[in-house]
Amino acid sequence: MRAIFGSLLAGAAVTVAATGAITADGSNFTLTGDGVSYLFHVDPSSLDLVSDHYGGPATDFTPPANILAGGWSDGLTNTRREFPDVGRSDYRVPAIHIKHADGDTVSAFAYKSYEITAGKPALPGLPATYGGDNDVSTLTVRMYDNYSDIEAVLSYSIFPKYNAIARSFQISNNGTANISIERAASFSIDLPNLDLNMIELQGDWAHEMNRVIRPVQYGETGFRSTEGYSSHIHNPFMALISPTTTESSGEAWGFNLVYSGSFQANTERFSHGFIRVLLGLNPLQASIPVAPGQTFQAPEVVSIYSSEGLGGMSRSYHDLYRHHLSRSNHTLQTRPVLLNSWEGLGFDINQTSLDSLAKQTADLGIKLFVNDDGWFGKTPFARINDTAGLGDWTPNPDHFPNGLGPYVATVDSFTVANSSEKLQFGIWMEPEMVNPNSTLYTEHPDWVMYQGNHPRTLTRNQLVLNLGRTDVQDYIIQAVSNVINSANIRYIKWDNNRGMHEMSTPSADYAYMLGLYRVIDNLTTTYPNVLFEGCASGGGRFDAGLLHYWPQHWTSDNTDAADRLIIQMGTTIMYPPSAMACHVSAIPNGLTMRNISIEYRATVALMCGSFGFELKPVDLSAEERAAIPGILANWELINPIVISGSFYRLALPDDTNWPAAQLVSQDGTTAVVFAFQQQATVKPAPPPLRMAALNATAMYRSTAFNGTYSGATLMNAGLNLAWKVEDYQSKLIYLYKQ
Hints:
Helices cover about 20% and strands about 30% of the residues. It contains twelve helices and 38 strands. Strands 1, 8, 9, 10, 11, 13, 14, 16, 17, 21 and 22 form an eleven-stranded antiparallel sheet that branches. The chain starts with a strand and ends with a strand. Belongs to the glycosyl hydrolase.
């Protein structure tokens, strides 16, 4: 790794990193990507870092905005800052807020030196993007508060191909007394006075990832999670867009926290119009102690700039995260189609009923059978309902008298229909939780998250284990390892079905996350061939932190296809379709009671990386059973494109009765269009469906029309699809470049 060093305003010689993406010219720093520039400089009088530009390509440092001085707002309040602290005339929300041993919270960080390296170092204990010397370059800026002997080390990494900048920082206590981190926004930037809207992904259980757009007005605009996890309510992502930005054109700035705990996203437009953007830990669950000689590491935020609309930003995130965040062996591989036992059997299981369901699964041509909840615990804490057993990860001897091994061997013996493959086995676990009715809790009641004598409030009859404790971490690692080692387990669905209530201290959430990441890092490293899928009552922890370790996440407990289409479209604003797990469930749907055709249900689910079924095969109608071979054939064709291709939101279900999405293969030779009609209409006529990202001069043949059409025709004139006067219709359209 090549490194270039510099010190305080040490001359005007230009230094260039190995890839040329970062330059330091005296006090000026420039990060350059294929379509982005990020410029800031050191103020010679205050030694503060000042933001100059973040947006489309720019090569020069221009004079700052002229703000009329006067009144109370002067000094740093009128400066566009990179790392704002508390005090010294800046009245806006800071990025870093430190409480010192004597109780004061003023900081005065001043520039000290910089270092430029090719590549990107890992963050100790935390998930982060990664890349080689040819993929990413890193600028490290050191600042020091001489009044308190605290050092701040700011990290800027740029992935030029993706127009992505990853930022984080460290705070080192070089003093003689404890300090406390009260606020830590990993990414902070002051944008100029621009007319911008904020996009966030808001929702709740069974209603995740709804796109919400609101203007960035004077004062603060933002949201946060206090659930202890990233949560269903708000995702740790926001985007800023121009009012005229569309899916395919206009400016967009995305910000995503690579972290699974509580967070806060905030913008603040001050009186001069500058917009401060902050994303990091939730201050209500911070107060993180840092003893003398210790260092605090903030999580990473990945920001992407796009001049090609919201869709351009999304695809950059998708590609970056598949290649430089998600490290699983399975990330770039197709996933086996699966059937989950929960909808079919619930807790009413035994080895006989499960063997029968597994056999039915193989007979349908499905490749992976997943045994969901209810397989563990011993009397009196057997898991026969959701009131007992969590934490006791040993097979229920009443169900599996010989353990999991012989049962899994039976499942593995079934041949998948129309193939020579054998059925694979997966299992459900919820390792971070415990029921009070369990052996684990009886023996270790102090292992849960609690606060003194306060009641330990339950959700779903369970408590949260305190993963900030090393003994709890070690117990989970051993318990999960024992399960994996007991049988030929190819897949684990890792669930989490409640948020955190009582914490011993506000900082317990941060300590929990470090412990969780240690556990998952250990298990995914030890068992790299096991396919892990995250779940948190659906999409409660669909975040970039866990995506670093696990290649896919259950998108929502709501499997109603019409609702899922909205949820999945929202999810793709930030996360790659390859990371979504989506299933066809039985009708009427258990939540909405809607009856939607299996074709529509399958078309919605097929746009995801992990595709499967949540139903009882014997309950399938003759029509549904007849449709499954065709659905599986489509899955064989589509899944490789979902895993590695590019995703386009052609029309959103929020905006039209005829939503559509498109995938384009990595080599550009094949496109798949997912088209829908939500409600039956007599009039008006549906609009033509216009494709995206085709070769304008090439000709395409298709399953939707005879002969060939040019890419230009398909993108500009579009296709007029024939819809019946029926609710919830879908079409899969393949386009093949000639």
